[in-house]
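ok new one. same drill as before - structure tokens go in, u give me an amino acid for every spot. 204 of them this time. try not to just spam alanines like last time pls lmao
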């Protein structure tokens, strides 16, 4: 019997990468990111990609001038990404998003369906971590899962929950459904492209 909290362990994901049961895997970079790299997400800077999985986006970021750090805590995911990426493979490393030391702030945290892989009990910790890793004015951007899922993961967000998590420290800059052609059955059409801007800390 699998406990839902198993999905918080590397072993849960490792087994899926090893057996290539990857219903969340898009097979390439999302069109929304391709478009945003020429528009909303400029100028380029330093990007962190937590829970990067196959890491398709890494080459795209590099081509757009970004310095990339991508991490995943499942060794088979890291190996898969490094094979897919070839020369860009060293941008991907094994690590736990919540524990990995990052000495410098990032301009962007890019999340494609990483938050929804985490149990909601960890979401406040996720929001704190992202807020602490971003410079003021930096962005949290990517594809987030809204809707319902009777058998998580993935764990769906709601607008109210997102506002509660991000509301005081972030401002929502973009929010739209993704292209229907790129929607995956596992998310039931609930994927949304969003950009959250990190607000400066209030002065005392
Ligand atoms: C739903 S998958 C998404 C993968 C990738 N972003 C994509 O779009 O295909 C979630 C990923 O997060 C990774 N993950 C889960 N918890 C993690 C953590 N605490 N630190 C780093 N990676 C984690 C899993 O190993 C898995 O690859």
């Amino acid at each position: 019997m699998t406990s839902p909290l198993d999905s918080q362990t590397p072993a849960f994901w490792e087994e899926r990468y090893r057996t290539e049961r990857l219903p969340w895997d898009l097979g390439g970079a999302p069109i929304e990111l391709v478009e945003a790299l020429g528009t909303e997400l400029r100028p380029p800077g330093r990007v962190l990609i937590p829970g990067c999985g196959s890491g398709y986006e890494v080459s795209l970021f590099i081509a757009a001038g970004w310095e990339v750090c991508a991490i995943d805590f499942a060794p088979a995911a890291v190996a898969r990404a490094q094979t897919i990426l070839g020369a860009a493979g060293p941008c991907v490393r094994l690590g736990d998003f919540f524990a990995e030391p990052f000495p410098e702030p990032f301009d962007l945290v890019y999340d494609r369906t990483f938050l929804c892989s985490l149990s909601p009990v960890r979401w406040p910790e996720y929001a704190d971590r992202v807020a602490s890793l971003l410079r003021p004015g930096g962005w949290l951007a990517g594809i987030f899962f809204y809707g319902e899922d009777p058998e998580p993961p993935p764990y769906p967000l709601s607008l109210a929950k997102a506002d509660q998590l991000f509301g005081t420290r972030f401002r929502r800059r973009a929010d739209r459904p993704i292209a229907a052609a790129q929607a995956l059955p596992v998310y039931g059409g609930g994927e949304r492209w969003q950009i959250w801007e990190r607000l400066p800390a209030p002065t005392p």
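The chain has a mean pLDDT of 95. and btw Strands lie at 46-50, 67-72, 92-94, 106-112, 134-145, 170-177, 191-198.
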